[in-house]
Amino acid sequence: MMMQKNSNNWLVVLIQSYILIGLVVFGIVYAIDPSGFMFSAEASFQIMCHLFLVLTIWFFGSWYLATKRLFDPYVLFLLSATIFNGGQIILEVFQLNENGFLNNTFSFSESLQIVYLVTLAFAAMHFGALLCILLDRRKNDSLKFRGFLDRQSTIEPISSSAIVPFTSASIGRSYASPIGTFRSSIVPASTVLGVGQIFLYISIIPVLVTAIGAIQVAKAGGYGSLYEQQAVTGFAASAIILADFIFPGVFLVIAGGQRKPKLRIFAVIYLLFYTCAKLTIGTRGAAVMPLLAMMWLWDSVVRPLPRTLLIVVAAVMLIVVLPVVGASRNEVTGVDLLSIEFLSKTLTGVNNPLVASIHEMGFSATTIGWTMELVPKVRPFALGMTILVGILTLIPNVFSAGRHPALTMSGYDIPDFWLVGEIDKEFADRGGSFGFSFIAEAYLNFGWFGIILMGVIGFFFAKFVQWAVRDRDPLKMAIIAIFVSFFLFYPRGSSQMIFRPLIWYSLVPYLWIKWIGKLSDSRAKGLLDSLRKGKK
Questions:
Q1: Taking a C-beta distance cutoff of 8 angstroms, is the pair 71, 330 a contact?
Q2: Fewer CB under 10 Å: which end of the chain, C or N?
Q3: DSSP class of residue 34?
Q4: 315 in any annotated domain
Q5: CA torsion, points 277, 398, 475, 482, in degrees to nearest 10?
Q6: Per the structure, how many domains does the chain have?
Q7: Residue range 354-361: mean pLDDT, rounded
């Protein structure tokens, strides 16, 4: 069975490699003599759109063939990337772009380049992810468990009070569990729960303060007024930074709270409140993506969620919630956004709410086209500097007002700030932004060679997911869920938004929990009790 699975993985990776090579060859041939190509730019554009749709189906299908999972962080990330960067490409196949592809902002020749770059970037990213699965030669769960017993390791006796129960169904029904459950992280659930509670309580007041403030601003001046405020820097940004500890708090409580069901329910309600607050002010990505991460974590470590429920929730979000929130952004002040009149007018005023949602989110691909136009004509390739600056912004700007010192010293701005300044200076001066794209950032740094970076992203994110899922470790799954809450928006942004969540909200809590887990039971309990009570 294992040999057959490896053989299937080899076949899937081989097919993906042929797809990637074919796309590269097509690009080289077309670049050499576009006028001598057998199809016109318009026909080639349409063919490339159809090819992207076919490959999108293959990407999801091949991931299932390789992992037997269709609901995991990589699938969620692939879905987010597809909607934000390829949403209008798919709509173009069905002639559902009423105003043309990206509102006819680009010529057919330029649109062909955009679609080709998106397709090539996805193919490279997915090749990296599948290659990671193929090279993942870890022992299976039963062999690893027997190895622990043979080595007389420091694992404590397994008891129902110290582990989170798992079944093969809890992770996409892809694992055989002949031995039962075990604690691969060697960390008691009570430790995970205790640390989660600390982060949860730290975040409550900052979340309330930032949510109430944002709602008041949006209610007074509309969604756009949120971005016309003076940037919050220095010590005043502390509340925003502390508010994001809601994610390690909620997800660690869910992972470690199997004996505290009421606390788990409180964590879920708390995150739902956060989601509703974000939706109220019109911030859809920050609202929906943590919710998706929470649903996956619950499905993995608590009990499997009915797939019908997942489909219903997705349909309601895409057909009702997101279109209403999108419409509320453009409303003038004084309109009751929760009134029956406004809701019915919004839903009936859109011919197809699902298409409208995908069309609006897919407009992010314009940032790819603009970047290809401006680089290297207006500015040179960044050669990795935007990524380096993103790493340098790990340290929050709580000690100085104005721009982050890393931006000032490097001379590089955050990519979306740079782009809006080039395209619409007046809009930029008001604090506006078009967002960005992880594909655009790869091109901004390395041009067409940025597809190599896309492959690296796919490989290491898949490795991160496998790190948690293959061991069925609730702590590791919680860490993945924390990171995914931010990372799902990466296809719509740039790398500066992922390093701080990776270190401060994911790695630091994980290392802290592992350190506490190495203490004796009495010392660990005393430390957690002291922290809960605020003692030093």
A1: no
A2: C
A3: G
A4: no
A5: 40
A6: 1
A7: 87
